[in-house]
Amino acid sequence: MSRPRVSIVMPNYNHARLLPTSLGAVLRQGVPADEVLVIDDASTDNSREVLAEFAAKWPQLKVIPNAHNLGVCATMNRGLELATGDYVAFLAADDEVLPGWLEHLVPLLEKHPEAGLVCGLAEWRDHSTGINWHQGVRMPSETKYFPPVEMVQLGKRGALSIAGQNALFKRSALVAAGGWRPELRWFTDWFGACVVGFRQGICHVPEVLSVFNLHQASYYNTAESRQQRQETMERLLGLLESDRYADVAPQIAGSGLLGGFGWPMFTLVVCRHRRFLGWSFLRHMARRTAEATGRRFFPRWLAQLCLRLFYRSKVRR
């Protein structure tokens, strides 16, 4: 039996100067992907020239231009439609996967075909403050599969983390989840990963497998106001209360993960969506609020110390 095919999708918009790092890291993996789709979202810089140079050297790379700017979510969904792999990953053009990324993930997903995705730990680098920390270090320190019921228990202990920055999805599971919901904007990756995970379970690798670079111009920071984010959170909660996602709403509620969105989510849940309120939610909210407050107001050395205390664990690079 042939092994599953792996597709990598990377949306790009005006990240020409970062492509040698991000795209180069993908193409130089010890276990190569069967296809790497870079979808250029009508860039106005020299991205096309940079991508053409890469394509001349790497036959598995396909550069697909959008006729006009579609935005991140629509571009990722186009990649999902075009991908031919059984497994698919979505990587940002300003982030970086580390050596051994696919080497760790592909065999584990093959070993556990019941899982919807596999991921590892991620290093976050806030370039505006110089503060770095690791996402996911409270997860168990063993490589294993976690069914949805165990994911809920991890969430209740404040230990569950799904690092979408380096996740490898079963393509069929992501399609069944609705792909990347454009109405959820900055939270579409969180939602997609949670729906897939709480339906089929996840595999976890206790290794730092990617670097998430947080720039001032990153899509993560593009919301113009707190109201915009809160309106999008309201749409997220509305989807969870719809029939399509009724199967995962109880697990997400039980895990408390929604508390990770902080105070804005708390006000929505208390006022209109109380089924998601609980001690696990409050635990996640308190941690998120403390973390965000420290990064924003503490001196750099103190903020870094607090993050190490929050996320203390022996992680390997």
Can I get a quick summary?
With 317 residues, the protein is of the alpha/beta class. It is 42% helix and 18% strand.
Taking all Cα atoms into account, the compactness measure Rg is 19 Å
Q: In the CATH classification, which architecture of the domain at 1-94 applies? A: Alpha-Beta Complex
CATH C-level of the domain at 1-94: Alpha Beta
Q: In what range is the share of β-strand residues?
A: 15-25%
How much helicity do the residues have? Answer: 40-55%
* Overall average residue pLDDT: 90
The largest sheet is:
10 strands, mixed
CATH fold annotation of the domain at 1-94 = Spore Coat Polysaccharide Biosynthesis Protein SpsA, Chain A
Distance between the termini: 33 Å
Number of helices in the DSSP assignment: 12
Q: Name the poorly predicted regions.
A: 312-317
Shape: globular
The count of strands amounts to: 10
